[in-house]
Write a structure and sequence with these properties.
Elements (H helix, E strand, L loop, with lengths): L9 E4 L5 H11 L3 E6 L11 H7 L11 H4 L1 H6 L3 E5 L5 H11 L4 E4 L5 H4 L4 H7 L4 E4 L16 H7 L2 H4 L14 H23 L7 E3 L2 H6 L3 H10 L16 E5 L6 E5 L3 H10 L11 H6 L1 H12 L4 H10 L3 E4 L3 H6 L1 H5 L3 E5 L6 E5 L23 H7 L4 H9 L1
Parallel strand pairs: 1-2, 1-4, 2-3, 4-5, 5-6
Antiparallel strand pairs: 7-8, 8-9, 10-11
Helix pairs in contact: 1-10
Length: 409
């Protein structure tokens, strides 16, 4: 039982960017046979200059190589465990091939802007005609209905519309972005759950039409603001931007440590933790007697004293010391720090995968959920563009003569 809990389930993945590919990768890690169709131009330019490669860090060792479209770290991270087909759905022959593939699939996953599926001829009626049991999962940015349903969606814009930017920022400062398209990740982890529920419903009720599942990126992001929304309803006031501060716990912050750009995150949640911190750090003698109210009132002074202590120590050592006394603390890790983290390494979180265009293996994040009897699998690296065209098309019943004609076109 090592093929994954979704072994035997076939998914046609038409997604793009981050949210949809993340959802497809989760299903693939769980053992589903995920076939990703992408147009020939989906992976960026044919030629990438060394200057651009060095600026973006998209490529191993900042080298785009002779086939940059196959060397991108981001693309290969998203495409793990998939089979890749390069196909133009805007051409009649490409659409006909996609129909043949869809006929053998259990799930169709897409995150197009509303209207794109219809323009491609993949209407609900057409999908039911070629595969009456197909479960369709859509991940539109703003939803399929409503006055803004036709808007294009990018994570940073969805973040703003979902109210997250209003919560981000320093005290008495303007709203801030988080620096990454976080709504894509939020939507990407919601969609697999919706997919599995829809698949279960289709299996449990085979006499009923297969379910259609919609997961709007905007709504998936809004629900992450639950405490702030509740606070507004209770108090009638907008939440205050606090920077690294917490509305109830004090002190809380990110403090400098010795080394280049090294930091420690720290939160004190009780008076007993505060006293334990005062025993470890050389803080002023009157500090231990401060209750939560006074700690909030004099947070700046506390931050200054803690920073003077942390700046002389390594963040990892401080984390061990503080956690040993029951104080919540963590070293702030960058990407190399996470890969080297002994805890993640001991849990086998990093999976080394090699793609022929790279020349060597690189670590990738594993699936963050685990099953004892049907463990997740890491079977395939991200495919080269169109790597599995012949294989998948033959499975769809396209004979050698038609395959040669198709490839020639």
């Amino acid at each position: 039982m090592t093929a994954g809990p979704l072994h035997g389930v076939r998914v046609l993945d038409l997604t793009r960017v981050w949210a949809g590919p993340l959802a497809g990768r989760i299903l693939a890690d769980l053992g589903a046979d995920v076939i990703r169709i992408e147009p020939p131009w989906a992976r960026g330019p044919r030629d990438v200059s060394p200057t651009a490669a060095a600026a973006t860090h998209f490529y191993p060792d900042d080298d785009p190589g002779e086939q940059p479209w196959n060397r991108s770290g981001i693309i290969n991270k998203h495409n793990r465990n998939r089979r890749g087909v390069a196909l133009r759905l805007d051409l009649p022959q490409g659409k006909a091939v996609a129909d043949r593939i869809l006929a053998s699939c259990d799930i169709l996953l897409e995150n197009f802007t509303p209207g794109v599926m219809q323009r491609l001829g993949l209407t609900d009626e057409h999908l039911r005609e070629i595969n009456p049991r197909l479960v369709h999962v859509a991940m539109p940015g703003w939803g399929l209905t409503g006055p803004h349903h036709h808007y294009a969606a990018l994570g940073p814009m969805v973040e703003a519309a979902a109210g997250q930017c209003m919560l981000m920022g320093y005290r008495d400062a303007i709203p801030y972005r988080q620096g990454m398209a976080f709504p894509d990740a939020i939507s990407g982890i919601h969609a697999p759950g919706a997919t599995l529920v829809a698949l279960w419903q289709a299996t449990a009720q085979p006499e009923a039409p297969p379910p259609f599942a919609e997961g709007a990126q905007l709504e998936a992001t809004v629900v992450f603001n639950g405490p702030a929304l509740l606070d507004v309803q209770i108090t009638g006031h907008e939440p205050e931007r606090r920077g690294n501060r917490h509305p109830h716990y004090a002190p809380q912050g990110v403090y400098p440590c010795t080394g280049d750009d090294a930091w420690l995150a720290l939160t004190v949640t009780s008076d007993s933790e505060w006293r334990a911190l005062c025993e470890l750090a050389p803080l002023p003698p009157d500090f231990p007697d401060w209750d939560t109210t006074q700690r909030h009132a004099d947070h700046d002074a506390i931050d200054e004293a803690i920073a003077a202590w942390t700046s002389a120590a390594e963040p990892g050592e401080l984390m061990e010391l503080l956690q040993g006394r029951g104080i919540i603390a963590a070293a702030v890790l960058d990407a190399p720090g996470m890969i080297a983290d002994p805890h993640l390494q001991a849990r086998g979180f990093w999976v080394d995968m090699e793609q022929p265009q790279w020349g060597r293996a690189f670590p990738f994040a594993a699936l963050p959920v685990h099953f004892d009897r049907t463990p997740e699998t890491y079977r395939l690296p991200g495919p080269a563009l169109g790597e599995h065209n012949a294989e998948v098309l033959r499975e769809a019943g396209i004979d050698e003569r038609h395959l040669m004609t198709f490839e020639g076109e």
